[in-house]
């Protein structure tokens, strides 16, 4: 059974989904692909101990701390390629950014395949926003580009993490 609950954040309402004490999803209300990875019945407004633990992680994050995502088992549903991209996102340090192209090059070095557009699609379909930090990916020139939750939310998250903005561009990893 999938359990879902909401969380009031500085970005607005977030929705969290859990199955068997793993996070399946974390979405900003109204974001693109909202709940798209949930393919089975779910129980809404359920507060399990694991969802309370996830909310405690979010409380720490929004309080300006850098809690370890290692403390939360993540189980996003997606293709092997998407999983490879999402693993790369987890390696981007707090408060830093990288580019779609840099992720594509890293994927190429592992698999021999490379496409910044395919990486962009995988990043955009990340079902676990904030925890899998897709907001830390910017365009090749360091400018903000696409974010399923909205560019205003992406910018807020980067500023919250004290990412460095110099000459109108975000400083890359």
Could you describe the 3D structure shown?
The chain is α/β, with parallel strands linked by helices and 173 residues long. The protein folds into 2 domains: 2-71, Methylated DNA-protein cysteine methyltransferase domain (Double Stranded RNA Binding Domain, 2-Layer Sandwich), CATH 3.30.160; 80-170, Arc Repressor Mutant, subunit A (Orthogonal Bundle), CATH 1.10.10.10. The chain contains 5 helices and 8 strands, in the order ββββααβααβαββ. The strands form 3 sheets. A 4-stranded mixed beta sheet has the order 3-2-1-4. The mean pLDDT is 86.
Question: How is the secondary structure organized here?
Answer:
Elements: E1 2-9, E2 12-19, E3 22-28, E4 42-43, H1 49-62, H2 80-89, E5 98-99, H3 100-111, H4 116-124, E6 137-138, H5 151-160, E7 165-166, E8 169-170
Parallel strand pairs: 1-4, 5-6
Antiparallel strand pairs: 1-2, 2-3, 7-8
Helix pairs in contact: 2-3, 3-4
């Amino acid at each position: 059974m999938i359990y879902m609950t909401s969380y009031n954040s500085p970005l607005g309402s977030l929705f969290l989904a859990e199955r068997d004490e793993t996070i399946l999803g974390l979405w900003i209300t109204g974001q693109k692909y909202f709940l798209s990875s949930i393919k089975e019945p779910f129980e809404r407004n359920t507060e399990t101990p694991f969802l309370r633990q996830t909310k405690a992680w979010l409380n720490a994050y929004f309080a300006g701390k850098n809690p370890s995502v290692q403390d939360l088992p993540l189980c996003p549903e997606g293709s092997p390629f998407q999983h490879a991209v999402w693993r790369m996102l987890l390696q981007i340090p707090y408060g830093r950014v990288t580019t779609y192209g840099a992720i594509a090059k890293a994927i190429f070095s592992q698999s021999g395949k490379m496409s910044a557009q395919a990486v962009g699609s995988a990043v955009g379909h990340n079902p676990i926003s904030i925890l899998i930090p897709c907001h830390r990916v910017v365009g090749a020139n360091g400018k903000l580009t696409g974010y399923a939750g909205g560019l205003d939310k992406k910018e807020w998250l980067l500023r919250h993490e004290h990412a460095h903005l110099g000459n109108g561009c975000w400083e890359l990893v």
